Structure formats: C-alpha cells, structure tokens
C-alpha cells in the first residue's frame, strides 16, 4: 500500500534529516579523528624530543641503567605507549622495553634521516595498530643514535567512538524534535488536504453540497455591519463573498469571480478573511462545487427541454406519412421516422448507425451512396422518382435529398424525405386513359357522322335491289350479304355514337334488384338454352339508389353478355349484391365460370375497340360504354381473373361494380371520380 500525503511528508523530512545527520556525523567523525591524530602526533613529538635530549648523556656514557630508567619512566607516562627502545648510530638496539625479546623487523620499519626532526609511521603488528615515532639523538652535529616510541591507536579509536555515539544521540534527538515540529506544522495542512480529498470524492459521487473551507470567526456582514438579507453572501457561512456573484456591497463589482476579484482583494473583508494557500484552495473548491451545481441544474433543465423537444419532434416525424431520414457526413443514419422503418421492415435500433450497404442490396446501396456523395460535395439538393419492384408489385417513390449545413456553410449531413406516389401514378395513368378515351370518343363521333350517311345510302339501295332481283339468283344472295354487313356497320356506328356522347340522363329512384331482374328476365331464357345458369345471391336489404336506371340496365346487359360469351355452354353466372364499405355504397358482383382473362389483358379490356372475340361477335365498345356509364354515376368498376377468394367461382372472371346510392346527391350531379383496376 502506497503511503499517503502525510506519510510522504514525514518520510521526506525523516530521510532529509537522516541524510543530513549522516553527513554531519561522518564529517564530525573525520574532523575529530584528524584532530586527535594531530594531538597524538604533537604529544609523541614532545615526548620523543624530551626523551631524545635526556638520552644524550647516558648514550655517551653507555649508562644502560640510566637509559633503562628513562625508558621505563617514559612508558609509564600513559597506557597508550606500547614500547620504547634506543638504537645506536649503526642501527643496533641499545635498550628496549620488550619482555619477550626485541623484534628485529622494527629496526628498519621506520627510519629518520639526519635532516628530519622525526618520522611517524602506522605499523600493523598483526594484533594492534601502532603509531611508531622515530627521533634522532644528536649532540652538536654528531648523531649518537635513534629513539623509537610506539603508541597504541586505542586512544584515537575510543575518542572517535565516543564522538560517534555523541553524534548519533544528537542526530536522533534532532530527528525526533524535527518530526515533532513537522507534525505540528503539517497536521493542519494534511487534515485540510484530506478533507479536500474526501470532498472531491463526494463531489465525484454527485454530492455537490460538500463543505471544505473552515468556518470564519467573522464574516462579511459582521465586518461591514451589513444586514441586507437579499444579498447572496448574507448568512452564507460556507462560501466567501468574493466568490459569489451579485453581492450587494457598494464596493463590489458586478459579475462572476473573474471580474470582481481584483476589486475584492482591496476590500477589508478579503484582507481579514483570506487565509493561506490551503484555505484558499478549499474556498475555491467550495466555489467550484457551487458553480458546478448551478451549471448542472441548468444543464439538466436544458437536457429535459431538449429531450421533450426531441420526443415531440420524433412524434411529429412519426406522424408524417412521408418517410424521413437524417444521415451524417459519412452516410451513417442518425435518425429515422416510423414511415422509414416500415418501408424497410426494420426497427429504429436496426437502422440507426448503419449505412446504405447494411440496409439495401449492393446495386441500390452503390446508387444511393453515389447520390449522397454528390449532394454532400456539391450542396445541391436532389429530387427524383424511384421505381422499385418488390414482392407486392411496382412501387413509385418521390425522393428529395437536401444537404444539412452548419457554420461557414460546411455540409454536416443530409436529410432524405420521400413519399409513396404509387397511387398518384395510378391516378395519372387513369387520367391519361380518360383523356385518351375522350379523344377517341371525339374521333369516334366524327367518324360515325361521316360514315353514317354513306351507310344509309348503301343500305337503302341494297334493299331496293332486293326487290328487283330474283330470290333464287346469285345476285340476291350477294345483295343480301351487302345488306347484312351494312347493318353490322350501322350497329358499330350506333355503338360509336353511344360511346362518344352522353345522352340525356333520366334520374329516378329505384331498387337495384328491380333493375337486375328486368335485365335477367330478358336474357335468362336465352342463356338457359346453352345450359348457363344464373345464381342470385341478393342481400335481404333493399338497395335503393338514384341514377339513370336504363343506362345501368345497359351496364348489367353488357356484363352478363360478356360472361355468357366467356362461358359458351355449361356454366354458371353468379350475381352478388350488398352494401359497400358504407351503407351509402351499393356493391354488385357478377362472376362467371368461363375461360377467364390473362393477366396481360386485364388492363386493356376497358379500352375502346379492344376485344378478344371473333370479328362478327363483338365491336370492343361494350366495356368502354359500361365504364363511361359507371363514371357518370361516380362509381368504380374492378375486374379480377380468377375471382376473389370467397366471392364468385374458383375460375373465370369477376366484375365488381360499386355505386353511390345518390340518395343525398342533387339531381343531375352524377359526374365525378371513378376508378378501374385489373
């Protein structure tokens, strides 16, 4: 476990004092050792010089007893003197203090010349370290011999050891005193730092109400004799007035800490209440937490508003039927609405963060990426129509891609919006078809008028010829053929006239069932001859409506004749009646068991002159006339082959006519919207 701040401070001071004490200890020891050594040298020189002077007379007299007495007296001067002996001028010992014999090696261990006053050497005997001092013995200028004295190093060692013990004691006492002083000085600092540390951890946990700075003995309202309760600093014991904005002191500058601190430093409140750096740090920390609390409150409020606005915007986007998406500069989807998700069949979580390559086929993704890149690079919006082939058929989409600009016109991303215009395309096709039908109608009217007169003349002259020729001759047969074909042409012209112009409608209120029965009463016998049965599945309710009964009877005749022609023989025609999606709509379904209509021809059957019958069986105008009559009555007609499941037969063709009852419609107001599908 790593030491704390207090431990580091103590450890640092202890280490510093210890190093300093060791340095002083070593230095003092060396100084003491050198001083003691110098003292010993001086003492040895003094003893040696004194003994050398006293040895002159005994050496000249060769008084060995006197020499022995002098040496013994010298050795007895201190217990640190190990030996003493005298050598003659040839280097042979004259007298010595060794009890076990004179060690010969000592003779040359330390020599001194005639010019030296003395020579000192440190000798190692194997047991002791000896300071050996050699002094020449002179009388006038003649050298009589050499005096040698040996001193133990014990005195030096004892003195140094005593000095070291003293220094260690002084060092320990100094460290202890220093630690006590440091602890006394650092304890408030470390407590403040520990409190600041604890407060910062509390702040990190979200508690911004922590208080770190110490309480003051006197506060600003006491010092300034102020009792303005509306001041934010009044009775605020935990925050200094110079950190608070909006204080009401006359000398205060308006604004936050950065604007007012220069003037606050000149205030007597700041001079009396400001503390050391640690206290200032604690006060700054309290001011910081107060500011953070205010900023966080504002941020949370702003975040709440933003979330509400975001949810509202998402709700609005989801309510829009058009699909909308937002992409960043890299093409990644940032946000999408519900319509976009439904179009792709994915959840929002499966789309956000993905690119085109993750959501579409490779060909589509490549095309969309190129379009997006062009919009992002040029900042030019893109408007287009997409034709998409899917499992449910062809869909048309109107797509708009707009760049999203930020500061300095930099493109941040793009917004893509679009809508399904498949129904609009269908309406456009129907409108085109209606315009085509109108043009064909005008053309047919013109052609019918031009052809009708020549046909009348041809028919008249042909009938006159029949009266003048013999009935058994070949000419009669030829003229009969001319009359027959001319009548066929007249019928075609009559159908063209019916198709091209609307005769005056006779509006009345009637029951659809009555109209159907009137038509069935005419055709049922003929159909029965070919074994074609008619099945009636009428609703029990009366289906009354306003409209042109005769024209609607023509619609039923045309649809029944087409069903009969499709069956030929041995089949059935089913007629279902009932209400449409509302009680104001009447639904009539006529289905057969015939050969049906191929899918490619379903969209063509209402076009003029289109027919799959033989040339002498139909003109191709019946369904066109039927379509026009239903259009006049604001109705719709749909064709299905085979019939819808649950209605009609399992094979063949089914026509479903839906007509408004018109009971709430003004007389003559029959033209309106219509539709037809296949």
What's the CATH class label of the largest domain?
Alpha Beta
Number of domains: 5
| Oligomeric state of the chains present here | single chain
The rough form would be described as: rod-shaped
The name CATH uses for the topology of the largest domain is: Heat Shock Protein 90
CATH homologous superfamily annotation of the largest domain: Histidine kinase-like ATPase, C-terminal domain
Return the structural class. alpha+beta
**Percent of residues in beta strands?**
15-25%
Radius of gyration: 65 Å
Q: What features would you describe in this structure?
A:
Helices cover about 50% and strands about 20% of the residues. A hairpin with a 4-residue loop joins strand 3 and strand 4. The protein is built from 17 helices and 18 strands. The longest helix is centred in the first third of the chain and has 51 residues. With about 675 residues, the chain is of the alpha+beta class. The strands form 4 sheets. The protein has a 6-stranded mixed sheet with strand order 12-14-15-17-16-18. Strands 2-1-5-4-3 form a 5-stranded antiparallel sheet.
């Amino acid at each position: 476990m790593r030491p704390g701040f207090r431990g580091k401070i103590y450890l640092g001071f202890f280490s510093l004092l210890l190093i300093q004490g060791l340095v002083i200890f070593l230095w003092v020891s060396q100084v003491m050792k050198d001083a003691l050594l110098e003292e010993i040298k001086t003492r040895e020189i003094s003893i040696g010089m004194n003994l050398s002077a006293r040895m002159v007379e005994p050496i000249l007299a060769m008084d060995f007893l006197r020499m022995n007495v002098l040496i013994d007296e010298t050795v007895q001067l201190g217990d640190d003197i190990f030996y003493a002996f005298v050598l003659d001028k040839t280097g042979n010992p004259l007298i010595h203090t060794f009890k076990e014999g004179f060690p010969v090696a000592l003779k040359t261990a330390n020599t001194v010349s005639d010019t030296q006053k003395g020579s000192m050497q440190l000798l190692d005997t194997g047991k002791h370290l000896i300071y050996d001092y050699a002094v020449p013995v002179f009388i006038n200028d003649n050298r009589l011999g050499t005096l040698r004295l040996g001193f133990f190093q014990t005195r030096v060692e004892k003195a140094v050891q005593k000095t070291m013990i003293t220094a260690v004691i002084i060092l320990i006492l100094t460290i202890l005193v220093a630690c006590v002083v440091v602890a006394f000085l650092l304890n408030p600092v470390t407590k403040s730092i520990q409190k600041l540390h604890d407060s910062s951890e509390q702040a990190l946990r979200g508690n911004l109400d922590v208080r770190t700075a110490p309480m003051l003995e006197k506060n600003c309202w006491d010092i300034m004799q102020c009792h303005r309760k509306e001041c934010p600093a009044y009775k605020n014991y935990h925050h200094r007035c110079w950190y608070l904005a909006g204080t009401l002191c006359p000398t205060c500058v308006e604004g936050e800490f950065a604007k007012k601190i220069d003037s606050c430093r000149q205030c007597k409140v700041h001079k009396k209440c400001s503390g050391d750096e640690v206290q200032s740090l604690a006060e700054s920390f309290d001011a910081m937490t107060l500011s953070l609390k205010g900023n966080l409150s504002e941020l949370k409020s702003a975040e709440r508003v933003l979330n509400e606005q975001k949810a509202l915007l998402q709700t609005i986007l989801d309510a829009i039927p058009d699909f909308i998406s937002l992409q960043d500069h890299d093409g990644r989807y940032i946000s999408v609405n519900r319509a976009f998700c439904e179009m792709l069949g994915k959840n929002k979580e499966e789309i956000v963060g993905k690119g085109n390559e993750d959501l579409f086929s490779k060909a589509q993704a490549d095309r969309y990426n190129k379009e997006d890149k062009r919009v992002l690079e040029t900042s030019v919006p893109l408007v287009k129509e997409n034709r998409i082939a899917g499992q449910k058929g062809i869909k048309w989409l109107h797509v708009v891609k707009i760049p999203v600009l930020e500061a300095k016109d930099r493109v941040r991303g793009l917004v893509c919006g679009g809508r399904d215009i498949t129904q609009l395309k269908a309406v456009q096709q129907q409108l085109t078809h209606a315009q085509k039908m109108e043009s064909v109608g005008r053309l047919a009217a013109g052609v019918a008028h031009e052809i009708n007169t020549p046909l009348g003349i041809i028919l008249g002259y042909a009938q006159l010829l029949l009266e003048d020729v013999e009935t058994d001759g070949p000419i009669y047969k030829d003229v009969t053929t001319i009359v027959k074909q001319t009548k066929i042409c007249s019928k075609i012209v009559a159908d063209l006239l019916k198709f091209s112009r609307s005769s005056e409608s006779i509006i009345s209120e009637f029951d659809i069932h009555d109209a159907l029965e009137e038509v069935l009463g005419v055709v049922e016998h003929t159909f029965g001859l070919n074994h074609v049965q008619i099945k009636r599945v009428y609703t029990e309710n009366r289906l009354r409506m306003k409209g042109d009964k005769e024209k609607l009877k023509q619609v039923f005749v045309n649809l029944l004749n087409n069903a009969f022609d499709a069956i030929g023989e041995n089949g059935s025609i089913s007629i279902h009646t009932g209400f449409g999606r509302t009680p104001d709509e009447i639904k009539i379904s006529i289905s057969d068991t015939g050969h049906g209509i191929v899918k490619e021809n379903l969209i063509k059957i209402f076009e003029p002159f289109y027919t799959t019958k033989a040339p002498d069986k139909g003109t191709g105008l019946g369904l066109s006339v039927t379509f026009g009559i239903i259009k006049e009555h604001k109705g719709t007609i749909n064709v299905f082959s085979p019939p819808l499941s649950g209605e009609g037969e399992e094979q063949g063709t089914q026509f479903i006519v839906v007509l408004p009852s018109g009971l709430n419609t003004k007389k003559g107001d029959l033209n309106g919207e219509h539709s037809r599908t296949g």
